Amino acid sequence: MSVGSTALPLAVFPPVHWWIQAFDEHTFIDLDRAYQKQTLRNRFTILTSNGAQSLSIPVASTGGQPTPLHAIQMAEGKWRYEHLHAIRSAYGRAAYFEHFYPQLEQLYHAPMVYLHEFATSSLQLLRSQLIKKNTPLNFTKPAAIHLDETQSRLLSATLEPSYAGIQEPGYPQVFSDRFAFQHNLSYIDLMMNKGPEAIDYILFIKNGYTPV
Fold first, then answer.
1. SS3 annotation, 19-85
2. CB–CB of 20/166 below 8 Å?
3. Of the four listed, 66, 126, 173, 183, which is most buried by Cβ atoms within 10 Å?
4. Minimal CA–CA distance to 29: which of 39, 19, 37?
5. Residue 88 belongs to what domain range?
6. How many distinct structural domains can be found in the chain?
7. Does a structural domain hold residue 212?
8. Quick one: how far is CA 1 from the chain centroid?
9. What is the pTM of this model?
């Protein structure tokens, strides 16, 4: 029996469990599925001095009509400044802040209109590490393999910031003196604290754990 491919919704600065699924050889990142509010498609979580904080990208109204992700536009407003301020405040003392923050600033200041543009660009911060590990991200549905629609719908339903299907091994976080290790954060937390080891950390978990 042939193995079906799985459609993974594109996400903004996704956490470890998203990356593990994205690295699966039968998974492709799907931009055609209907956008869903209050999911990882436009929301990610960082760790601040007050605990976990979710940052959302506001999007333009679709009039309540089902709209594919590739057609969703980002709303105007101060959210870019607010996100950068929150990230700078949260990770200013992180080991790799000076390396990664300028890249985040460049991304946030880029003149992008569509959410999928911003989300795709958010993945590029690990791009060089992915290339070195020969671990590409697949944005094209394999033509010769059928889509496992049941698994794709299940995956879409669990694509939430609170998802706890994978418990990552702990690593030193900026506010480890205040909080126990925080799971399911954006990979911004991982790269700020572990730098070049971020991709090795994800691949280590992938080889030992399976999403539930």
1. HHHHCCCCEEEECCCECCCCCCCCEEEEEECCEEEEEECCECCCCCCCCEHHHCEECCCCHHHHHHH
2. yes
3. 173
4. 19
5. 6-205
6. 1
7. no
8. 32
9. 0.86
> Nearest-5° angle of CA 175, CA 179, CA 184?
90
> Would you say residue 211 lies in a domain?
no
For residues 17 and 44, the answer to whether their CB atoms sit within 8 Å is no
Residue located via tokens 């994800």 = 202
Residue tagged 């101060």 (tokens): 78
Q: Tell me the three state secondary structure of residue 158.
A: coil
Residue 88: Cβ within 10 Å count: 13
Amino acid at 150: T
Is the pLDDT score of 164 beyond 80? no
pLDDT above 60: residue 1: no
Counting Cα atoms < 13 Å in the Cβ hemisphere of 33 gives 21
Amino acid, res. 185: L
Type of residue found at 199: I
Tokens of 75: 């709303």
User: Among positive and negative, which fits the CA dihedral 74, 76, 79, 81?
Assistant: positive
Q: What is the pLDDT of residues 108-141, one digit of tens each?
A: 999 999 999 999 999 887 776 776 766 777 777 7
Helix, strand or coil for residue 96? coil
